[in-house]
Design a protein that fits this description.
It contains three helices and nine strands, in the order E-E-H-E-H-E-E-E-E-H-E-E. The chain is mainly beta and 152 residues long. The strands form two sheets. It has a five-stranded antiparallel beta sheet, with no helix packed on it. A four-stranded antiparallel beta sheet has the order 3-6-7-9, with no helix packed on it.
């Protein structure tokens, strides 16, 4: 995997659809050079990448479509599906390739029911790098230590 100083990066995913609807989401692209912009290809990672990352492959993901588009001087990946997504939690591995570069990122997001979604802003989720974690157990979250009570 080639790495350069201004290699493209994947940012936050914003979910624009609800549970039981075809997926509509957008992923920010960061640090995209003019040279990389024309060569970016986004797609669902191969099923073996899901196995390597210990992530169950949801068959509904097979209908996902990824389109890299310019927007307001930046690049975004539009993610859409042809069929409704009926699982509230979705784990997706996205593969981004460009001239001499490749990265795989995990996105986990929640699809709210339509009635709850109408009252909320779009859900934003940060990516998780899975490129180097194959075969590793997930890191434990840091424990919070309660503050000691002060005498009165």
């Amino acid at each position: 995997m080639a790495a350069t100083a201004n290699a493209a990066g994947l940012g936050k995913l914003t979910v624009l659809s609800s549970l039981g609807q075809p997926l509509r989401a957008e992923i920010e692209l960061t640090s995209v050079s003019a040279e990389e912009a024309g060569a970016l290809v986004a797609r669902l990672a191969p099923t073996e990448a899901f196995r390597s990352a210990n992530i169950d492959f949801n068959p509904a993901l097979s209908s996902l479509r990824f389109d890299v588009e310019p927007r307001n001087g930046r690049q975004v990946i539009k993610v859409s599906s042809s069929q409704a997504i009926n699982e509230p939690f979705v784990d997706m591995l996205l593969e981004l390739t460009w001239n001499g570069g490749r990265m795989v990122r995990e996105y986990t997001f929640l699809l709210d029911p339509p009635d709850l979604r109408a009252a909320q802003a779009p859900q934003v989720t940060a990516p998780v790098d899975v490129s180097n974690r194959a075969g590793q157990a997930p890191a434990a979250a840091p424990a919070q230590t309660p503050a000691a009570a002060q005498p009165a």
